[in-house]
């Protein structure tokens, strides 16, 4: 069987770091509240004029370099984002041009915070189907552009950034010892639209709009649904939670992450955490966490990694892979 194996990782975070204290003069909040309720200590914000595709291109270059692969060897670019530069064309085609590519095909995936998991599952399906050999999968966001700076319940949570993986087709032996993406589990339920959405768009207001969230309700769904989807993906891979080396969760809130790890029976030593430094970067948070952990030398070949995420839609899912 053909498997999608991770050949390289890369990420980019904008230079501007915003500590929690920055919000104290803007809304009625404290560093203490943000730390204890979310685990976030700081986040990066893109500079004026710096776009999602700018971040994505930097992350992509870093991943290609890490993989030792040139852009002309890439067949497909998939960008997970909800904050594209423009309504169209896709950020992925901007990345394609930015990398100097004229061949292949590129498109965006929009599943908000679950976007990277959706993009990985898409890339895996294309590689298995023989439609692509090498896929650049990127999560890139500039959520700072859709913040309502008067809403303390949301503006303190999000950050900007991008992460990327290079996936390559590899022929496995068909045993679970093989590397690569082993399984995925995707879900959505559009009846939860009002829990988390942006109140603008092309066919409604004609504006970009601002993020609106019923945080405590999203929180409850997250705690319930994330362990479930991870469980289903593991089951599909023929694995159990005790065989997991790393949980690489979407980095929205430390309390959600801890509750999910606990439900899965995983100690926090097995969880990759970047939420303190990055905040919630939506579709970028999982590849940012993977790339950060890889750069720190924490991931070893053969490690079983579970990723999971939930976001607007609601949309949620999990991908299991062997590093
Ligand atoms: N500073 C101080 N107080 C605050 C702040 C703040 N920044 N934000 C909210 N509060 C207050 C609320 O107003 C409320 O006050 P009240 O009781 O007087 O009304 C109180 O804190 C408790 O509010 P809750 O919303 O119940 O607080 P909770 O403990 O749930 O934490 C949070 C809020 C951090 C937003 C949490 O619900 C959360 O993380 N939710 C999930 C977010 C998430 O994961 N989103 C999904 C991914 S994002 C995506 O897909 C784009």
Automatic annotation (TrEMBL):
Coarse class of the primary localization is cytoplasm
Q: What is catalyzed by this enzyme?
A: malonyl-[ACP] + acetyl-CoA + H(+) = 3-oxobutanoyl-[ACP] + CO2 + CoA
**Can you give the residue ranges of the Beta-ketoacyl-[acyl-carrier-protein] synthase III C-terminal domain?**
234-323
Recorded E.C. number(s)? 2.3.1.180
Q: Which Pfam families does the record associate with it?
A: ACP_syn_III, ACP_syn_III_C
- Key word NAD present: no
Root EC class: transferase
Annotated GO molecular function terms are: beta-ketoacyl-acyl-carrier-protein synthase III activity
Localization recorded for this chain is:
Cytoplasm
Instruction: Print the keywords alphabetically.
Output: Acyltransferase, Cytoplasm, Fatty acid biosynthesis, Fatty acid metabolism, Lipid biosynthesis, Lipid metabolism, Multifunctional enzyme, Transferase
Residue ranges of domain Beta-ketoacyl-[acyl-carrier-protein] synthase III N-terminal in the record: 107-190
**Which pathway is it part of?**
Lipid metabolism; fatty acid biosynthesis
Q: InterPro entries recorded for this chain?
A: ACP_syn_III_C, ACP_syn_III_N, FabH, Thiolase-like
Q: Which residues form the active site?
A: 113, 250, 280
Fill in the subunit field for this protein.
Answer: Homodimer.
Main function:
Catalyzes the condensation reaction of fatty acid synthesis by the addition to an acyl acceptor of two carbons from malonyl-ACP. Catalyzes the first condensation reaction which initiates fatty acid synthesis and may therefore play a role in governing the total rate of fatty acid production. Possesses both acetoacetyl-ACP synthase and acetyl transacylase activities. Its substrate specificity determines the biosynthesis of branched-chain and/or straight-chain of fatty acids.
Which NCBIfam families did the record assign? fabH, PRK09352.1
Q: Name the chain's protein.
A: Beta-ketoacyl-[acyl-carrier-protein] synthase III
| Source species | Paracoccus pacificus
């Amino acid at each position: 069987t053909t498997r999608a194996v991770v050949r390289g990782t890369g990420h980019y975070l904008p230079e501007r770091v915003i500590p929690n204290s920055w919000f104290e003069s803007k809304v009625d909040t404290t560093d203490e509240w943000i730390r204890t309720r979310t685990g976030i200590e700081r986040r990066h914000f893109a500079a004026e004029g710096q776009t999602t595709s700018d971040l994505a291109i930097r992350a992509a270059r870093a991943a290609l370099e890490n993989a030792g692969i040139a852009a002309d060897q890439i067949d497909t670019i998939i960008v997970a984002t909800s904050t594209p530069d423009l309504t169209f064309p896709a950020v992925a085609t901007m990345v394609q041009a930015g990398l100097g590519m004229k061949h292949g095909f590129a498109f965006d995936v929009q599943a908000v915070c679950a976007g990277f998991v959706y993009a990985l599952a898409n890339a895996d399906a294309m590689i298995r189907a023989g439609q692509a050999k090498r896929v650049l999968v990127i999560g890139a966001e500039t959520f700072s552009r859709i913040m309502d700076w008067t809403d303390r319940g949301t503006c303190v949570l999000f950050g900007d950034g991008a992460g990327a993986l290079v996936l390559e087709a590899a022929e496995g032996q068909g045993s679970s010892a093989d590397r690569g993406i082993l399984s995925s589990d995707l879900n959505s339920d559009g009846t939860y639209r009002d829990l988390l959405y942006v109140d603008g768009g092309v066919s409604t207001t004609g504006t970009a709009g601002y993020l609106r969230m019923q945080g405590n309700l999203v929180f409850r769904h997250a705690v319930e649904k994330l362990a479930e989807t991870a469980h289903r993906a593991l089951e599909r891979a023929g694995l159990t939670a005790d065989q997991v080396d790393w949980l690489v969760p979407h980095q929205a809130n430390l309390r959600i992450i801890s509750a999910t790890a606990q439900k899965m029976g995983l100690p926090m030593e097995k969880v990759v955490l970047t939420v303190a430094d990055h905040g919630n970067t939506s579709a970028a948070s999982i590849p940012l966490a993977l790339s950060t952990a890889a750069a720190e030398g924490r991931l070893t070949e053969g490690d079983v990694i579970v990723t999971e995420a939930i976001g607007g839609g609601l949309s949620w899912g999990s991908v299991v892979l062997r590093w």
